[in-house]
């Protein structure tokens, strides 16, 4: 067994993900199970959500998990074993009003991990996507004009 090690990671900061993955692999040598379970969402009409916020949601919900997965994947492939899990959302299958950025990012993630599942079969790496219905998340009402505070984390 290994002593637990806390490694902080902002999944929306794509630039630091590879370094964190390297740190994990240097510490433990491998990752047997990777569970991608981070998410950001915002509620609002399409016309009221900035493109900047759309991109931040996409970074956290799509580019973050695939960047981390791609950083860990070569180790799993070389060992010909591993499990990758994406905890996603039902909104990755169906869209809802006032959740366009979130649903789009979740749809993209489903597409990526579905393709990955087919590609990893030959390496005996299991890829699963879990799409639960609504989950209670921490949320607080933002001050007017503070879009970043309106993000559910």
Automatic annotation (TrEMBL):
- Entry's Gene3D superfamilies? NAD(P)-binding Rossmann-like Domain
Alphabetical list of Pfam families matching this protein:
adh_short (PF00106)
The entry lists its GO molecular-function terms as: oxidoreductase activity, acting on the CH-OH group of donors, NAD or NADP as acceptor
The record's InterPro entries line, in alphabetical order, gives: NAD(P)-bd_dom_sf, Sc_DH/Rdtase_CS, SDR_fam, SDR_family_member_7C
Keywords from the named record? NAD, NADP, Oxidoreductase, Signal
Alphabetical GO biological process terms: intracellular calcium ion homeostasis
Give the stretches traversing the membrane: none
The record's section on PROSITE patterns has:
ADH_SHORT (PS00061)
Keyword NADP listed? The answer is: yes
| Source organism, top-level taxon | Eukaryota
Name the PANTHER family for this protein. Answer: DEHYDROGENASE_REDUCTASE SDR FAMILY MEMBER 7C, PTHR44668
- Report the sequence similarity comment from the record: Belongs to the short-chain dehydrogenases/reductases (SDR) family.
Q: How is this protein named in the record?
A: Dehydrogenase/reductase SDR family member 7C
């Amino acid at each position: 067994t290994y002593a637990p090690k806390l490694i902080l990671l902002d999944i929306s900061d794509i630039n630091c993900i590879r370094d964190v993955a390297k740190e994990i692999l240097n510490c433990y040598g491998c990752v047997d199970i990777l569970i991608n379970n981070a998410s950001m969402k915002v509620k609002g009409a399409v016309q009221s959500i900035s493109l900047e916020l759309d991109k931040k949601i996409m970074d956290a919900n799509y580019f973050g998990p695939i960047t981390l997965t791609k950083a860990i994947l070569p180790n799993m492939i070389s060992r010909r074993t591993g499990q990758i899990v994406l905890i996603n959302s039902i909104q990755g299958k169906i869209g809802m009003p006032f959740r366009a950025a979130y649903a789009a990012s979740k749809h993209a993630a489903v597409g990526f991990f579905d393709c990955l599942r087919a590609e990893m079969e030959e390496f005996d790496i299991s890829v699963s996507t879990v799409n639960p219905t609504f989950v209670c998340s921490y949320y607080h009402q933002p001050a007017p004009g503070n879009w970043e505070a309106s993000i559910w984390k």
